């Protein structure tokens, strides 16, 4: 009888130890998943804030400053750069390649 009880307690302790190991593995996996969820949520918040700042900066660029020459210069920058890159530089490269 004594040896049966001893074997029973030994197997019960092994089982408890195995269950504790499984619980530790589960807790580690759950912690890792929660950490990834928090990181992803933080990235989403930062991305949303960045998009809001971008939208506000674009809106602010479109507002007139009150100085006519500054507004005219601001409005002319993009078309002048496009003209320079597309027309002048392209044709200078094409003509330069011919000669």
Description:
The protein is an all-alpha fold and 99 residues long. The chain has 2 domains: 1-63; 66-99. It has helices spanning 2-62, 68-98. Keywords: Membrane, Transmembrane, Transmembrane helix.
Detail the topology: elements first, then pairings.
Blueprint: H1 2-62, H2 68-98
Brief overview:
The protein has 2 helices and no strands. The mean pLDDT is 89.
* Major pleated sheet: none
Work out the helix count. Answer: 2
Strand content: under 5%
Strand/helix succession: HH
Low-pLDDT windows of residues: none
- For the record, the count of structural domains works out to 2
List the main descriptive attributes of the protein structure presented here.
transmembrane, mainly alpha, 99 residues
